[in-house]
Design a protein that fits this description.
globular; seven-stranded mixed beta sheet; Aspartate Aminotransferase, domain 1; Aspartate Aminotransferase, domain 2; 14 strands; alpha/beta; four-stranded mixed beta sheet; about 425 residues; binds pyridoxal-5'-phosphate
Length: about 425
């Protein structure tokens, strides 16, 4: 694998960009080595500046569910951009995407579009506080909800369970209202609710994807539903990642979570910056201009981004790829397990719809502490050998791999081969 041009750009990028990246997940820190620079992508493939071509399981961390450059999406974006980039006034596309999203998420009567998942979630928290008149929120260790101050606690970092900021620059005051509970552990939630009268909401990823993929137990979800009702707190389902992964709509519905507020991002923009939060009318009435909770955005509901989102969701609905996602993920799970067994390596594979990932551990992964038992050195070896064999997966064990509708049998063959080589490499380097 040649990386000469990427290395050169990396050095150049260091001068005026922080670490030569605009998001730390792109920095390859946790696998050792420097980031690659991308030239272009088409369907299931992505090509770097050194002309290495990979099967892409990063997919921009989720948005490119139709693969790169889907004809209809590109056409819609081109058409919209010819009409103007941004107006500071309403457009028809916003109404159209709002209807599509509300139809797909029955608990949402109304939606507000923003520009990122981070923005969606921080607005949703404000909304929950405005609606309940209470201040505290419960968050689960290992769940990531964007980089706003009050949510940078136990966000997949090592600072689990204590309400200590997970980042420098976050004041202790900003996280004092964030209570941490353990995923799949209902007692840890109940304890907070019994000790505090001031809790506005419980926020969770209905399917966790930011500590690697972790599925909730039925008991956990039912427990949350009951506790929320009993203590009159809202449930915020952060579906920025899980939305549209295993059905057209939300994971909350499939797992029976009685969510009050939904947060969206990633897929609904089809690769353009879009986030959204929504709820039933009673709650959304709080939001300005109808109500007294202020939240605004110069580029929110941007016409080009709306066009991209509409075209993406329309195509996704038409293709209904969810059976394909399941079957494909099942195949990849099989490759991983067979290759691991062959080489005597202990792994866990967790998956949900178009999300899947591998943990190098012999422990079943059900929460953040068990995810943390995974061996990151082994993953680093695995990662680079996957790259070497033309498969691009996220450069961290604690990120989901994403599937797109454009994956071909040939791509899967290549993936299978790469997985076997990579597991072999892990074994020989041990
Ligand atoms: C990606 C993600 C976010 C943050 O979205 P950005 O668009 O990166 O700000 C929030 N919550 C979840 C569950 C996510 O996966």
């Amino acid at each position: 694998m040649k990386t000469k041009k990427s290395q050169k750009l990396y050095k150049k990028g260091l001068k005026h960009l922080v670490g030569a990246v605009n998001s730390p997940v792109r920095a390859f820190n946790s696998v050792g080595g420097n980031p690659i620079f991308i030239k272009k992508a088409h369907k299931s493939h992505i090509t770097d500046v050194d002309n290495n071509k990979y099967v892409d399981f990063v997919l921009s961390y989720g948005p490119m569910i139709l693969g790169h450059g889907h004809k209809k999406v590109v056409k819609a974006v081109k058409k919209a951009s010819n009409k103007g980039f941004s107006f500071g006034a309403s457009t028809k596309g916003e109404i159209k995407l709002a209807k599509m999203v509300c139809d797909a998420f029955p608990v949402m009567d109304k939606v507000r579009f923003v520009n990122s998942g981070t923005e969606a979630v921080l607005s949703a928290l404000r909304l929950a506080r405005a609606f309940t008149g209470k201040n505290k929120i419960i968050k689960f260790s290992g769940c990531y909800h964007g980089h706003s101050d009050s949510l940078l606690v136990a966000a997949g970092s090592g600072l689990a369970t204590l309400s200590i900021p997970g980042s420098k620059g976050v004041p202790n005051d900003a996280v004092k209202n964030t209570l941490i509970a353990e995923y799949n552990n209902i007692e840890s939630v109940e304890k907070h609710l019994e000790e505090n009268q001031d809790i506005a909401a419980i926020i969770l990823e209905p399917i966790a994807g930011n500590m690697g993929v972790v599925l909730p137990t039925e008991e956990f979800i039912q427990g949350l539903n009951e506790l929320a009702k009993k203590h009159q707190v809202l449930i915020i389902a952060d579906e920025v990642m899980s939305g549209f992964r295993s059905k057209f709509g939300g994971a909350y519905e499939k797992i029976g979570l009685q969510a009050d507020i939904i947060c969206l991002g990633k897929v609904i923009g089809g690769g353009m910056p879009v986030g959204a939060y929504g709820a039933r009318n009673e709650i959304m009435q709080m939001v300005s201009p109808l109500g007294k909770m202020y939240q605004a955005g110069t580029l929110s509901g941007n016409p080009i981004a709306m066009a991209s989102g509409i075209a993406t969701l329309k195509e996704l609905k038409k293709q209904n790829p969810y059976l394909f996602f399941n079957k494909t993920a099942e195949k990849i799970e099989g490759f991983l397990k067979d290759a691991a067994t062959k080489n005597g390596i202990a792994i866990q594979v967790n998956r949900y719809g178009s999300m899947i990932n591998v943990f190098f551990t012999d422990k079943t992964v059900t929460d953040f502490p068990s995810a943390q038992t995974a061996n990151t050195t082994d993953f680093g070896i695995f990662f680079w050998e996957m790259m070497e064999n033309g498969v691009f997966i996220p450069p961290s064990q604690f990120e989901a791999w994403f599937l797109s509708t454009t994956l071909s049998d040939k791509d899967l063959k290549k993936t299978e081969k790469a997985i076997f080589k990579a597991m072999e490499k892990v074994k020989t380097k041990k």
